[in-house]
Amino acid sequence: MTVMEQRGAYRPSPPPAWQPRTDPAPLLPDAEPYRVLGTEAAGKADPDLLRRLYAQLVRGRRYNTQATALTKQGRLAVYPSSTGQEACEVAAALVLEERDWLFPSYRDTLAVVARGVDPVETLTLLRGDWHNGYDPHAHRVAPLSTPLATQLPHAVGLAHAARLKGDDVVALAMVGDGGTSEGDFHEALNFAAVWQAPVVFLVQNNGFAISVPLAKQTAAPSLAHKAVGYGMPGRLVDGNDAAAVHEVLGDAVRHARAGGGPTLVEAVTYRIEAHTNADDATRYRGDAEVEAWRAHDPIRLLEQELTTRGLLDEPGVEAARQDAEEMAADLRERMNQEPELDPMALFDHVYAETTAQLREQRALLRAELEAEQERNDAQEGGAR
Amino acid sequence: MTVMEQRGAYRPSPPPAWQPRTDPAPLLPDAEPYRVLGTEAAGKADPDLLRRLYAQLVRGRRYNTQATALTKQGRLAVYPSSTGQEACEVAAALVLEERDWLFPSYRDTLAVVARGVDPVETLTLLRGDWHNGYDPHAHRVAPLSTPLATQLPHAVGLAHAARLKGDDVVALAMVGDGGTSEGDFHEALNFAAVWQAPVVFLVQNNGFAISVPLAKQTAAPSLAHKAVGYGMPGRLVDGNDAAAVHEVLGDAVRHARAGGGPTLVEAVTYRIEAHTNADDATRYRGDAEVEAWRAHDPIRLLEQELTTRGLLDEPGVEAARQDAEEMAADLRERMNQEPELDPMALFDHVYAETTAQLREQRALLRAELEAEQERNDAQEGGAR
Amino acid sequence: MTTVAVKPATMAQALTRAMRDAMAADPTVHVLGEDVGTLGGVFRVTDGLAKEFGEDRCTDTPLAEAGILGTAVGMAMYGLRPVVEMQFDAFAYPAFEQLISHVSRMRNRTRGRMPLPITVRVPYGGGIGGVEHHSDSSEAYYMATPGLHVVTPATVADAYGLLREAIASDDPVVFLEPKRLYWSKDTWDPEHPADVEPIGRAVVRRTGRDATLITYGPSVPVCLEAAEAAQAEGWDLEVVDLRSLVPFDDETVCAAVRRTGRAVVVHEATGFGGPGGEIAARITERCFHHLEAPVLRVAGFDIPYPPPMLERHHLPGVDRILDAVARLQWEAEG
Amino acid sequence: MTTVAVKPATMAQALTRAMRDAMAADPTVHVLGEDVGTLGGVFRVTDGLAKEFGEDRCTDTPLAEAGILGTAVGMAMYGLRPVVEMQFDAFAYPAFEQLISHVSRMRNRTRGRMPLPITVRVPYGGGIGGVEHHSDSSEAYYMATPGLHVVTPATVADAYGLLREAIASDDPVVFLEPKRLYWSKDTWDPEHPADVEPIGRAVVRRTGRDATLITYGPSVPVCLEAAEAAQAEGWDLEVVDLRSLVPFDDETVCAAVRRTGRAVVVHEATGFGGPGGEIAARITERCFHHLEAPVLRVAGFDIPYPPPMLERHHLPGVDRILDAVARLQWEAEG
Ligand SMILES: Cc1ncc(C[n+]2csc(CCOP(=O)(O)OP(=O)(O)O)c2C)c(N)n1
Ligand SMILES: Cc1ncc(C[n+]2csc(CCOP(=O)(O)OP(=O)(O)O)c2C)c(N)n1
Ligand SMILES: [Mg+2]
Ligand SMILES: [Mg+2]
């Protein structure tokens, strides 16, 4: 038998049948951000929900201006404002059940407050008396995350653990447009999809990562298009339309709770203020763009819808304003009090049980502070 | 003016026009892996190219079996075979121009050899006499990368640099299905798309990351679908069809060279051997699957096409086999020689200029080796 | 410490048994990592766990170390006790940010409200002929990170006992497994894990009068061998196995050094910036007037880990240890 | 070293000038990082570079540190000299794998054929009231990694000179910029960079007879202040500014310690596993019989970096340094 004959006995066959692991079509986002306010869909929205959203938006805006004011008074080390993004912040909080978990980034203090955490405790990180002020378990809110996108795998792990335990808990994780470029974003979404973890990823695309505009961040058709690469649905929504954000997130949360797995939601919005009070936005963007977005203000959008439909009147507006003022006054007053500081606390929670090393260092600091106290007392004594 | 009237003066407008940054439709991969061999498309394929591919595939298979044999003889510390994946390996090498760059992973020694690097120098890492054997600049081949996906940003940076310098150089980077889960994969593809860097990403989806099957690695419709999330085209190709892989990669290389930016290519293939000689594949997969893929062997596929079309006859097959045997004999012989080892080299390339510290340590080792030598000489002297 | 001899087992087997027993005792213990399920890990240390406890308890993850550790953080937040396997030392580096910025700090950040009882198992060190990136000794990175415990066994009994303790700890523990001791064998009684000293205690493996070798993990057997060889040269060496780099057992170490007045720290990690500097410095701070000579270090050279065929020149061996002992200024003594 | 006084400038300005001059002199120098272009960096250290040299030379990257350093590796492979900015110390951690597994090893891996002349600028340290993750002193991680140079200026002139040298170096340099010295001012002559000592040399900033303070970066001014204050207590202190942690200048340091017989190492990084251990250990190895007391360390506590309102308790200050000097066993002297 010749070589060719030998080979002829072998008939290569087609590859084992290939099929897409999932149908990509339903995963792709709509061609335009989904909107409710000012569209026909608004008619189907629950009036009560719209009113609750409105009250929270007004509070949220006031919270933002108050916190920014506190930076000027030196009461906060830094504040990244979510002015203009209140619809996302508020909807993210309101869409969750009590048993669900929220994973905020540093910009999302408003979502944390809207979820019910004490605003003063929420601002602890940014005031600088400790790294985190609230008990994460009390309200099921993870600490505000500063390293970008690192909170996303946490949300996935928590949601996965809840599912393993048989609890129908959903985790909602927030991240910025810039944060989507980090490897952690990728790894988190992939784990979530493979594990079918009940988690919702909310990307607030506010146009900028500090000074870097979206065009330098990604070439994707939209950030929501990233979803298909993980095998999860991507949704695109007008991030200034509170009703739309609430609806899209609500769908995603229900989907996740029902065992349908994760969703990626991109909310298109805009950061009206500078990155933080320490930033100078005039270095990288013009007024015209800001003004165009001011004209699409999330509060005004909802206000118009509500008034047009007769769901809000002047006293209603006034009541919301009043409520927000009270919140602000309370916040102002409490933030104007000096926080209680205990330097010894530096050693208390490094480990479950302190080490011999840390005991030594604790003693050193204690002795220093006592000596300082003595010197101060002596000086005061001298002065007296 | 009442509050409502004041507010009435403000008319919220739609958001600044939203549009996808790129049209997603052309970025999506075909519904099935692209095939040439055994289809009508084969008629258009260049006979010379097919013959060249065939000769290289036969060499490649022989190279794989020879290298595996060398592990059994203790001449290689470890060998990750690309048996079954030769079409991808060979096409990746042949599709590039001399001035282009290849970024291989540890499994891609065959692509490196097919690009013209001395097989012995290529195997240095796996023999264990040094971490890399060849001069990367001589053949424009980066060192084999062991940490998964870390070579991808390198390829992007190099391609970007070439473009900045005005050189029409393309970088082709290889990675496995498992490697696509790493954050570096994500960051590399994103940078490439934003910078429109002339780089082609070739994912060899061989079904497994060591023991972990694709289904535990991703829920995506296909790995090629990830492309759309970066705003680059994704292509899906039968990785055992050398003509198809060459064509798809060729298109991507030309596209990149012409300034069209990066492409993600997923080649669907199969790892016929265990992960490496040290792995036991029976722990995680059955024979049936392997056999199904053996029946779709890249060499036989091409052989059938060539013989059917009268482009290959018995002497041609024999010549290819002969050529491969010579390569194998040469490799065997040269790998059976002990590599020259110079322990002092450990200190030579840590820094451009050595440090006082390293000089001390070098002296220490030299003294130890001299003492060892003396002891050995003394023993030999005693024995004589 | 009494170790009841029962039957010989390898260190790898003891580690497997530790996870198995921990999983059986506590349903919140979950193992995750690359290839830990069906395959049982590339070193087979998780062999059988997926079969016994199911894939939800011992899970093959996607291939992404930051993702593995990051999701483990979330699992721990929800009350689980994840045991994470990093496949090799150098492949833990992608998870560095999660480890430093979150795992080590979450308890402190939340004033104790959100502890993270995570065990990160890292096969480490050389001597197994591994190609590049498979032989790093990365303990200096972990030691420099407050909030982590850093533990490494050198005996089969310790492998079991320390891993059980690590998993039970309410703090994150980086558990460094000396690769080249995986196949070391010893008799050991899994029924008496309490016979093992707790995390945070060093153990004197050999008493001696002349000088003290301070070491851990893969270098413990080497130091014991060196101590035997030293007899021939007339030195009686004490050998301390640190077991736990964090917390560090100053008491045991300093007592051993004070007894002998001379000390050499031995480890595979590079010398410069490696663990030995810290160890030598703290011994000197505490035992200065007991020292007849400076504390010396025998460590890996200050170079990237060598290729397999050259690694023997890099690793601290008996001769290099004895040379260091010889440099402990014996003349000055009399 | 003569520094011709020309006009006062801040350290940040000197750094900008160094990059500007390097870019003007060498077209292969490229700056990249987050916000380095249009904004000029969050500390404005790259201010004006994009405008002067175009966005291709000073590039705002996507937000991904591993991607930034990883692409810089590729750029260096093609003959460019990337200068990478990491926005803050803790945000360099995502790039750790690229740094350790590639940047530090590529030259060695390729036997010198593929050097990577990359400068990684990392603003580091505390004292600026930064919230969590904005004040880390991460130098111990870099020191423990062979193949990297680790450099940190403490003066305006050094900021310019060392950065020029780092960029010109054919090796990767981790260039640590003390955040709280960014706005420190000094007269300094950019026309005479050669007046600056090269990388690898420590400099005695103040001579003294009684004890030597060994320090670097942000702690240099603190040590100089402490030395002034010590005069009042009757101690004449020498202050050594290391400038370069890798390579380490044993010669200058040991000469200074031998002169005084007593030494304290001062840095912000945590003590345990921090740079001070290495420094104290190597001094002791080399100067044992010149030491009247053990080399002591004044360092950050072994805790995660504190929140802004408590950081003053953590940072080594004048009092804590003087307390350490007082513990240098002066009684034993006479
Ligand atoms: C890992 C990491 N890198 C860098 C930073 C510094 N940083 C803080 S905010 C920011 C921009 C974030 O942009 P985006 O994700 O869009 O969120 P936004 O601020 O717009 O809400 C950067 C670069 C960080 N916090 N973490
Ligand atoms: C960062 C990193 N993590 C883990 C490993 C260990 N490892 C080596 S190969 C491999 C599987 C890779 O699978 P894939 O990417 O599909 O490539 P293949 O081996 O199939 O070619 C793993 C986990 C590694 N090399 N690098
Ligand atoms: Mg943003
Ligand atoms: Mg694979």
From TrEMBL, chains A, B:
Keywords: Coiled coil, Oxidoreductase, Pyruvate, Thiamine pyrophosphate. Signal peptide: none annotated. Residues 317-375 form a coiled coil. GO terms for molecular function: magnesium ion binding; oxidoreductase activity, acting on the aldehyde or oxo group of donors, disulfide as acceptor. GO terms for biological process: branched-chain amino acid catabolic process. Residues 66-343 form the Dehydrogenase E1 component domain. Residues 1-29 are annotated as: Disordered. Pfam families: E1_dh (PF00676). SUPFAM superfamilies: Thiamin diphosphate-binding fold (THDP-binding). Its cofactor is thiamine diphosphate. This is Pyruvate dehydrogenase E1 component subunit alpha. It comes from Streptomyces lucensis JCM 4490.
Automatic annotation (TrEMBL), chains C, D:
The keyword Oxidoreductase applies. Residues 9-184 form the Transketolase-like pyrimidine-binding domain. Keywords: Oxidoreductase. Its EC number is 1.2.4.4. InterPro entries: THDP-binding (IPR029061), Transketo_C/PFOR_II (IPR009014), Transketolase-like_Pyr-bd (IPR005475), Transketolase_C (IPR033248). Its cofactor is thiamine diphosphate. PANTHER family: 2-OXOISOVALERATE DEHYDROGENASE SUBUNIT BETA, MITOCHONDRIAL, 2-OXOISOVALERATE DEHYDROGENASE SUBUNIT BETA-RELATED. This is 3-methyl-2-oxobutanoate dehydrogenase (2-methylpropanoyl-transferring). It comes from Streptomyces lucensis JCM 4490.
